[in-house]
UniProtKB/TrEMBL annotation:
Membrane topology of the entry: Multi-pass membrane protein
Phylogenetic classification of the source organism: Bacteria, Pseudomonadati, Pseudomonadota, Gammaproteobacteria, Lysobacterales
Name under which the protein is recorded: Cytochrome
InterPro entries attached to this UniProt entry: Cyt_b561_bac/Ni-Hgenase, Cytochrome_b561_oxidase, Di-haem_cyt_TM
One BP term from GO: respiratory electron transport chain
Length: 182
């Protein structure tokens, strides 16, 4: 039986952000399959930007909400080393879900090309620097790949806790209870 869960707002934000990160990654992968200069490629690049900026905004909301809500305890408590590993993983996930879109924003700003979010034009530098924008793009891509692998490890750890350790780690974030004796 679950004894505690994350606040509904944190559960909602967790899954929305997970979906937005997945959509950002999928859209940028699809871009690579499309011919350069095509309207389809431009559309998925635009979608990638919209999803990425949405991740950034939702993470800012999540940080504000997280300050107001305590992390529920895990039942039964895992070993101390697992708690330390979980804290480090969550810290890295928070840092990357903020850093990846911020690098994308910085790249777009430095590129000097027009861009927008939700129909609003966003600023660009007066003196574009293509070389700097390219270096930042490389960092954005590397950090994005790191975020992907860390998110996969995060999901695997949650499933491991649910299936092998049989604790309520995963259930705290889904809001769904385990039946007694399950």
């Amino acid at each position: 039986m679950i004894t505690s869960r994350y606040a509904p707002s944190l559960r909602f934000l967790h899954w929305v952000i997970a979906a937005l990160v997945a959509l950002a990654l999928i859209s940028i992968e699809i871009k690579g399959w499309l011919p350069k200069g095509s309207s389809e490629r431009a559309l998925v690049k635009w979608a990638h930007t919209q999803f990425g900026l949405s991740v950034l905004l939702m993470m800012l909301v999540r940080l504000a909400v997280r300050v107001r809500h305590a992390v529920p305890s895990i039942t039964p408590p895992p070993p101390r080393w697992q708690m330390h590993a979980a804290h480090l993983m969550h810290l890295a996930l928070y840092v990357l879900t903020l850093a990846v879109p911020l690098l994308g924003v910085t790249m777009m700003f430095c590129a000097g090309k027009p861009w927008s979010f939700a129909g609003l034009s966003l600023p660009v530098t007066i003196a574009p620097d293509a070389a700097l924008a390219h270096r930042i793009e490389d960092m954005h891509e590397t950090a994005g790949n790191g975020l992907l692998w860390l998110a996969i490890a995060h999901a695997v750890a949650a499933i491991y806790h649910h299936v092998v350790q049989r604790d309520d780690t995963l259930l705290r974030m889904t809001g769904i209870g385990r039946r007694k004796g399950a």
